[in-house]
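Retro notes (design track)

What went well: tokenization of the new backbones is finally stable.
What didn't: we kept losing track of which sequence belonged to which structure.
Fix going forward: every design gets posted as structure first, then sequence, in one message. First example under the new rule, 240 residues:
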């Protein structure tokens, strides 16, 4: 019986030692990645993405040296895909998943941003262009400052999008407890639709076209002269 206890104790100590070593992590490592041209970005698996608009394309990865190689940056069909592959201990635990994993991207032209699986996206300067599609899901957060002609925002599954700046036309759709805060994104015409307990705030100077259902809420600012409002199943649309 004592022998069994000793064996179990040693196994426990080895496990705790490995656990603490993994949590301690390693020194930070920075890598500049060479990638093909892209005009869209997709990020997932809890990575923090920082976007900057500039003349020179750059993709920089910053993470603990034991996990930096597990951060994948690849371009497929014009989209820069950023995600982590698992680095497991004995195939069961991923101790490095909680360590910060940051990717800094500089791009001259950006048309699409997609965030999922608990990732965060933040613009470090004002993003500019003709048309921009932004989507978030699965608890991800997106914070942007933009100047575009047309902006499309889509959120679901408890994710959040907050956008400031200017646009001629804004389209916003939120569902499943997600939130879009675009009250400081000044637009001429806005289309907003929400459902399933999601919230949307927008700013429209000329026209607001809004539909809310299933407990969704829409708040619009700017007092636009043209208002097209639809409410159903406990949805609410109101001006501020």
């Amino acid at each position: 019986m004592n022998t069994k206890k000793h064996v179990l104790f040693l196994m426990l100590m080895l496990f705790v030692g490995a656990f603490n070593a993994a949590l301690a992590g390693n020194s930070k490592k920075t890598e500049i990645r060479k990638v093909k041209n892209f005009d869209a970005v997709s990020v997932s698996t809890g990575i923090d993405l920082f976007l900057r608009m500039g003349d020179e394309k750059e993709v920089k990865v910053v993470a603990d040296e034991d996990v930096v190689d597990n951060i994948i940056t690849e371009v497929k069909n014009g989209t820069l895909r950023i995600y982590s592959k698992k680095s497991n201990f004995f195939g069961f635990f991923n101790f490095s998943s909680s360590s910060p994993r940051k990717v800094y991207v500089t791009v001259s032209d950006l048309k699409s941003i997609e965030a999922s699986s608990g990732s965060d996206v933040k613009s470090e300067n004002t993003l500019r262009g003709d048309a921009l599609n932004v989507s978030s899901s699965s608890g991800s957060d997106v914070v942007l400052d933009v100047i575009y002609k047309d902006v499309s925002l889509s959120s679901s599954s408890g994710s959040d999008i907050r956008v400031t700046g200017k646009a001629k036309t804004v389209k916003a759709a939120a569902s499943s407890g997600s939130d879009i805060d675009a009250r400081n994104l000044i637009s001429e015409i806005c289309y907003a639709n929400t459902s399933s307990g999601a919230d949307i705030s927008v700013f429209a100077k000329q026209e607001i076209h809004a539909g809310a259902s299933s407990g969704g809420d829409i708040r619009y600012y700017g007092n636009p002269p043209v208002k097209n409002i639809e409410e159903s199943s406990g949805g609410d649309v109101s001006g501020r």
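Added context from the reviewer: Confidence is low (pLDDT under 50) at residues 89-96.
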